[in-house]
Amino acid sequence: MNILKYRYITYVFSLILVLNSVYFLVFKGLNFSTEFTGGTKIVFTSSQNQDDVNKELKNILNTDYKISKSNSSYSVDVSQSFDPSKITEIKGKLSSEIKDYNMENLEVVQPSVGHELIYKTLIAVGISIVVIFIFIWYAFKDFLSSLSAMFAMLHDTIILVGTFSVFSYFLHAEIDLLFVTAVLTVLSFSLYDTIVIFDKIRDLYNKSKTTDYYFLINKSISQTMVRSINNSLTSIIVLFALALFVQGSLFWFTLALLLGVILGTYSSPFVAATLYFDLRGLKKKLKR
């Protein structure tokens, strides 16, 4: 299997995905949940249709809101953080005005808390990436392998977040803490396959003592490909089945994991390993 021969095709494919993701992130943005923006989130079930529920909510809330529906479950996001007395009033009106009303969840997040959560999330992701970078550098005693792995992780993260920007724009998907958890999980999954390939490259190098990295990398990818695909397929099947039975934020969380597994399976051989080969070639040219 000569993966390196076709690496420029995968580079172009990845570049298209990354540019598309960056475009949506810059011009369309993300639909953050009240956990990040602050406000009030109300989740309830009702047998009424959405148009009738909307009419009642306009009179009850008397402010701007966003509403989404999944089967009989309604999710309402209000940008305003209501005080306890207003919450009690809203609960009473919802119960009396909406047919077959059943409250599932109601949470209020102050804007300052939401902003602090965004800051802490970014710090957590940044620390994770730095620690992983140092760990790979230490484990393989090779700066280029660490750099290649980081590019692959960045590749997966940008495409995943960019894809959810598309979902936010067209399907009103929300970015919440579950999505952040999914992103961090995807980073670890992507890294796992990459480390397996780099470990195989090191093992083949120690056994053969050849410096032909074109041969070493191609053979390493070939020997780990079946294992990687089998591992991914088991996760994909489980996540796909789960996505069929969950709703709301759990559905988007499952979908994020599903896309992350696919991206990680792709990026390890077709981005991290191939980029490692080209970086080694660039390093040789610069030394001349």
From TrEMBL:
It is a multi-pass membrane protein. Keywords: Cell membrane, Membrane, Protein transport, Translocation, Transmembrane, Transmembrane helix, Transport. InterPro entries: SecD/SecF_arch_bac, SecD/SecF_bac, SecD/SecF_CS, SecD_SecF_C, SecF_bac. It comes from candidate division WWE3 bacterium CG10_big_fil_rev_8_21_14_0_10_32_10. The keyword Methyltransferase does not apply. This is Protein-export membrane protein SecF. Gene3D superfamilies: Multidrug efflux transporter AcrB transmembrane domain. It is found in: Cell membrane. Part of the Sec protein translocase complex. Interacts with the SecYEG preprotein conducting channel. SecDF uses the proton motive force (PMF) to complete protein translocation after the ATP-dependent function of SecA. Its main location: membrane. The chain crosses the membrane at residues 7-26, 117-140, 152-171, 177-198, 229-246, 252-279. Belongs to the SecD/SecF family. SecF subfamily. Forms a complex with SecD. Part of the essential Sec protein translocation apparatus which comprises SecA, SecYEG and auxiliary proteins SecDF. Other proteins may also be involved. GO terms for biological process: intracellular protein transmembrane transport; protein targeting; protein transport by the Sec complex. One of its GO terms (cellular component) is plasma membrane. Residues 96-279 form the Protein export membrane protein SecD/SecF C-terminal domain. It comes from the Bacteria. GO terms for molecular function: protein-transporting ATPase activity.
